[in-house]
Amino acid sequence: MMTRQAIIEKTIKAINQLPEDKAEEISDFADFVIKKFEDNRITQSIQQLVLKSNAFDFLNDEEDLYSSNDLKEKYNG
User: Fold this and answer.
1) How many CA atoms lie within 13 A of 71 on its CB side?
2) Long-range Cβ contact pairs of 67-76 (< 8 A, separation 24 or more)
3) Which secondary structure element, helix H or strand E, spans residue 42, and what is its range?
4) pTM of this prediction?
């Protein structure tokens, strides 16, 4: 497995061998990957906040309004 620095050096070497338009495509792709990574990190942080908060605890005490007897048709698959 390559180190992070080796990956960076290999990528820079490859980019330097490409024409400008292809190097720009790689730059655009890197921007896309960074945005996706940041979005995932934000989503995970929000999920952790929700899990740790008590904001939805009231749902645990809510009575069941319906039971299986209320169903008109049951799936037995």
Assistant:
1) 6
2) none
3) helix 20-52
4) 0.60
